[in-house]
Each structure stands twice: as structure tokens, then as C-alpha cells.
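REQUEST ID: PR-0412
SUBMITTED BY: lab tech R.K.
PRIORITY: routine
TASK: structure prediction, single protein chain
INPUT:
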Amino acid sequence: LPLWLALSAALPVTWSPLLIYFGITIILALLDWPGLGRAVAGGAFWHMVSWLAGAGELWIILWVLGFKIGVAEALVIESLVQAIRSAAFFVPGAIGVQEGGFLLLGVLFGLPPEAGLSVSLVKRMREIVIGVPALLIWQGFEGRKALAAAREKA
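STATUS: complete
OUTPUT:
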């Protein structure tokens, strides 16, 4: 509270309470600017790591399937598919979007359509293998809570 009072004293008296509130908020945001910069840099770093891991996964899948592409091509395909998925954020689970993206981009990079679809299905299986057990565990926790609450009411 003393910090708010001191900051409000630094702002013009003629400002409305709403403008004073926004002014204090802006000052506090500017004071934490270095912390925000570290958070943004950290987020960008982990996003890049995830992106490179996805490109590596794509390269390995294609290599196992017998299609030879370079790491740079894998990075471009992965990044463009991620851009397509982001642009189609309104499609639940990006069902069909990822498949179409890999199919189209695979053909553009000289891969047969079967390769693009195969890569997409392998990546989708990874999501299912990780996602379904997590959902089942979550359902178990929620079911236990609901059962305990029902027992307490009875």
C-alpha cells in the first residue's frame, strides 16, 4: 500500500482514479522489465528447443521410413507445419490440419504423399500414447474426489 500511495503521488492530481491506476500499473510493469525480458528469453529458448526436437523427430521418422532428407529440410517442414497448425487454432486437436500440412509440404519437398501422411500418423500416435494415459490418470483423480465428496454427503 505505501508503494501505491507513493506512486500515485508521483502522478498528476488532475488524473481520474482510473488513469492513476493505469499509470501505477505501467510504472510497476516498467520496474519489472528485466524480469519480463528474462521470462520472454527463457520462453523463446524452450520454444526453439521444442521446435528443433520436432524437426529431429521428423528427420528420424523419415529416415526410418527410408526417405532421405536433410536436417534443414526437416526443420523447414516442421516449422511450416507448426505455422499451419497455429493458423488453424480453431480446429480441435488440429485433426486433419496436421495431416494435410505434412501431405502438402512433403510433396513440395519431393516426398511421396504416403510419406507425408505416414509422418503425420506417427506424430499423431505419439500424441495419443502420451495423451491418453494422462487423461486416464486425470479421470482417476477426479473420480476419487467425486466419490469422496459423495461419501461425505451420505
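NOTES: Residues 141 and 147 are 10 Å apart (CA to CA).
REVIEWED BY: pending
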